[in-house]
Amino acid sequence: MGGPLAGVRVLDLSRILAAPFATQLLGDLGADVIKVERPETGDDARQYGPPFLDEPGGAESGFYLSANRNKRSITVDHASTSGADLIRELAAKSDVLVENYRHGVLDKYGLGYQSMAEVNPRLVYCSVTGFGQDGPYADRAGYDGVFQAMSGMMSVSGIPDGEPGAGPMKVGVSMVDILTGLYASTAILAALRNRDNVTGRGQFIDLALLDCGVAALSHYAQNFLVSGVAAPRRGNGGFGGIPSQAFACEDGEIFVVASTAGQWSALAKALGRPNLVDDSRFATVSARIANRDLVLQTLDAIFANGSVSHWVATLEAADVPVSPVNTMEAVFANPQVQHRGLRTTIEHPTAGPIDLIASPIRNPDAPTTTYTPPPLLGEHTDDILTQLLGKTSDEIAQLRASGAI
Question: From which residue to which does any coiled coil extend (predicted)?
């Protein structure tokens, strides 16, 4: 593939979501991503279904498909001596290695950073773990929901205390995994630039899901550090100006933001309630925040008497930010989503045409215009060993017979 990362090779020893999402981003930008998987079973994410992609002779889950486009797959048993040797050979010809094994696991096989740096001093080695390389929790396992709970993300999500169904709530999307993938790709790009322009050497990146979860709390956490007071849960309400909230209509819900003076004035007039503009309880941002419950009660009563389509059209005409609360079907029917090409169709080697989510990055000088399908397990093993490592057909046969690949 072309792209701004053309010529960069990434050795991807990761599984499940956070780290594979990071390497997929690098692949979208043109890097040659070699996905190293266990023989026969592969990435655990392949089995995270249903749903599965219907294909002859096997199945790939939608979960796996979401994080593995623009990669090549090779099967290698890193626990075997020959397999570990192959990974070291691949690392010697790579710019980046990404792994998400528990702290210390790869060191047992001579595949930790210190060993790899001896093989390739220019290698950027990114280790994604639950808790990082040090500290009292370093050896613990963990998954997205654990980190949403531990980071405090759940404590500020969910229905407010005192209301039916109140309590902390996990974000539906595996948000800490996705955010960690974004942090990882950013850190890798910075390390590559530092290597190429400053030090000439690679480096070790220690990235923890817990760290990323806490950092992602942003103003929620910062407000606590400033005030010592934790933000209350506000359900589908925001923490900026008022209103920034979901409202129930006759046939569904809408989300409305009218936090500035101009937006509030436009909202009040569009609702046929111009008196709300000059009402001292609502006239300023601070007044609306102080009288939050009264503002929301007033708007709840108004929006309940009208359909989603009516209020969306009314508020859009008044330039008030608004959206229906879309179902998945409605998301992909949205004309803006369609115009931006966020649903793209590619040709899968066994299943034929399949749809994927396109990269949201728009770079006119180096656009991501083509995608290779998430690879079949071991699909590129022979090609990689032959073209990259110069293995002969007899050597590959011996590796396969030994179980190393």
Answer: none
